[in-house]
Amino acid sequence: MTTINLLPWREARRKQQQQDFIVMLAVAAVLGALVFFGWKSVVDGSVDNQRSRNSYIERELTQLDQQIKEISELERRREELISRMNVIQDLQNNRPYIVYMFDQLVRTLPDGVYYSSVERKGGVFTITGVADSNNRISALMRNLNDSPWFKDPDLRTVAAASGDSQANTFTLTVSQDIPSANSDNKGGGK
Question: Helix (H, G, I), strand (E, B), or coil: what is residue 163?
């Protein structure tokens, strides 16, 4: 005997397939959402990690900038101290030379010449004085030029002194020429 199925099995099968399709679609949507949120959390974690690294670097950079400012300030202070020390050292080194300079001013002074004033500005002495004659002024200039402590004497003015005397007033400039440290003749004249 043959059995014939008269039930609407095709409709039931379509309904079953539609239900299976909807379930598969829902599972795929859930899996897609899970993948999306998983990927989003990984990306957000990476971004947060990078932000924290950036903020750490920025904090360290501000600390380094502060240290650089402190180092610059210390270097500026160091340069100031070195320049002060150099000035003090120069003063200490030049201190005995002024004694030798004045000694040489006296040693180079010929008879008949008198100093009225001696002024020093930097390395240049301005000498004002009175001499018996122009020859005495010339002798003074030769003596200053021959001295190891002076160089380049330059006569600025010569004028006859007021009164009956034959004296001349003069003004001259001379540059200091400190002899080298190896010189044995510190205070002596030539």
Answer: coil
